[in-house]
């Protein structure tokens, strides 16, 4: 619940993408189709990992966490977006906005840390293959997953608490389709210096440092692959990393461009498109990337299809 006497705004109004009914109906159809693909694709990945013993490894343990995160994250955004495509009254209460802000920050922050943990797993697999099972034991994997979720929980709690302490006078129109922290903070009529500093620190700790660690991991991975003499061995080693590297590029690239790049006059419209890509497009692409570029996942999915037939 919000602190007493901190705001006179009872609800926020989203501008969304368009006020033209025909455009909104077209957007509804596209987003709804993408949402179904996201749910089905990620659910299939989780199911395949659960039922196929060949996927009982740290890499797929982290992948199942990532798929679960994608389902939760897109579900925290898309149903409301779909509802607002069908109505001209695009509103959300203050408390619901803060809840949505917290959930999106929680899941987004967790995903960045989880992707760094997955990069560490690939580093150990390629650079220390003989000690892989010892280093990446089930206990270590669970600890890394818990740490990812805890960092996301902590960061979301801090940012949401600072946002709820702001004063919101009469400006309640958000040029966005979701309660995104940067868009909400801009509406405040009080000093946002603490919020700006906390967001900058969070961007460094939760986004930039994990991204640097991922890049360092792949520097060592590429070096180890180049030292493999046979071309077949190099191809096999690199093929285990290409899916993760593609997902990392999509997730970190979009987030860094949104949160750490210089802001211009058209920042709101740009941020809406980046948020749409991160919340709707990326969760749909992740299972496709892993299933299309991974023979073991394709084999497990084929096994599921044969069972149904």
Could you characterize the architecture of this molecule?
The chain has 309 residues and is an all-alpha fold. The protein has a single domain (11-308), classed as Rhopdopsin 7-helix transmembrane proteins (Up-down Bundle). Helix content is 74%, strand content 3%. It contains 11 helices and 3 strands. The chain has helices at 21-51, 58-75, 78-85, 94-127, 132-135, 138-164, 181-185, 193-226, 231-259, 267-292, 295-308; strands at residues 11-14, 91-93, 173-174. Strands 2-1-3 form a 3-stranded mixed β-sheet. Helix 1 (21-51) packs antiparallel against helix 2, helix 1 (21-51) crosses helix 11 and helix 4 (94-127) runs antiparallel to helix 6. The protein is globular. It starts with 10 loop residues before the first strand and ends with a helix. The mean pLDDT is 87.
List the keywords.
single chain, 309 residues, mainly alpha, Rhopdopsin 7-helix transmembrane proteins, 3-stranded mixed β-sheet, 3 strands, globular
Give a short overview.
This protein has eleven helices and three strands.
Number of strands: 3
**So how many helices?**
11
> Strand percentage, roughly?
under 5%
The count of domains is 1
Stretches where pLDDT is under 50 for at least 5 consecutive residues are: none
Shape type: globular
Percent of residues in helices: over 70%
The CATH homologous superfamily name equals Rhodopsin 7-helix transmembrane proteins
Largest sheet: 3 strands, mixed
CATH architecture label name: Up-down Bundle
Distance between the termini: 50 Å
Task: Return the string of H and E elements.
Answer: EHHHEHHHEHHHHH
The radius of gyration computed from the alpha-carbon positions, rounded to a whole number of angstroms, is 21 Å
Query: If strands are numbered along the chain, what order do they take across the biggest sheet?
Result: 2-1-3
Q: Which whole number gives the mean pLDDT? A: 87
CATH top level label = Mainly Alpha
Structural class: mainly alpha
At CATH level 3, the topology is Rhopdopsin 7-helix transmembrane proteins
Oligomer: single chain
């Amino acid at each position: 619940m919000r602190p007493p006497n901190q705001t006179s705004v009872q609800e926020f109004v989203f501008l969304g993408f368009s006020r033209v009914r025909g455009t909104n109906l077209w957007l509804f159809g596209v987003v709804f189709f993408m949402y179904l693909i996201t749910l089905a694709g990620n659910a299939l990945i989780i199911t395949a990992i659960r039922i196929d013993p060949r996927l009982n490894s740290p890499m797929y343990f982290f992948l199942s966490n990532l798929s679960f995160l994608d389902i939760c994250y897109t579900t925290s955004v898309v149903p409301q977006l779909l509802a607002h495509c069908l109505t001209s009254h695009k509103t959300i209460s203050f408390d619901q906005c803060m809840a949505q802000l917290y959930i999106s920050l929680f899941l987004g922050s967790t995903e960045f840390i989880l992707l760094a943990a997955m990069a560490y797993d690939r580093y150990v697999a390629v650079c220390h293959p003989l000690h892989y099972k010892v280093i990446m034991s089930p206990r270590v994997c669970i600890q890394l997953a818990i740490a990812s979720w805890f960092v996301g929980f902590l960061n979301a709690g801090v940012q949401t608490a600072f946002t709820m302490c702001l004063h919101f006078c009469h400006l309640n129109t958000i040029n966005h389709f979701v309660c995104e922290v940067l868009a909400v903070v801009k509406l405040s009529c009080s000093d946002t210096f603490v919020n700006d500093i906390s967001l900058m620190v969070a961007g460094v700790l939760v986004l930039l440092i994990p991204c640097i660690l991922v890049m360092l991991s792949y520097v060592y991975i590429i070096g180890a692959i180049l030292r493999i003499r046979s071309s077949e061995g190099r191809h096999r080693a690199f093929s285990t990393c290409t899916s993760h590297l593609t997902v990392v590029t999509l997730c970190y690239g979009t987030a860094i461009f949104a949160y750490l790049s210089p802001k211009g006059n058209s920042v709101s419209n740009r941020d809406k498109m980046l948020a749409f890509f991160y919340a709707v497009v990326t969760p749909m692409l992740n299972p496709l990337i892993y299933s299309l570029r991974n023979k073991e996942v394709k084999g497990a999915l084929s096994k599921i299809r044969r069972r149904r037939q």
